[in-house]
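Q: Convert this sequence to structure tokens.
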Amino acid sequence: MSEDDLKKFIKKVEDLNALVDSLETLPGRRSKLASCYSHDQVVELAKSWGFEIGSRWGE
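A:
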């Protein structure tokens, strides 16, 4: 893994952790996320909340 790929990977993990944390602190987020039925919906919802979780670290 290149250094650039490692940075992308770490950023994605940080965003995922922050997203999970927000489910406990911001009312309604957990149910909105649970109502998604596809990966694309999850990615778009997360993006609307300011989290970039859709890109793969190796791309």
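The mean pLDDT is 91.
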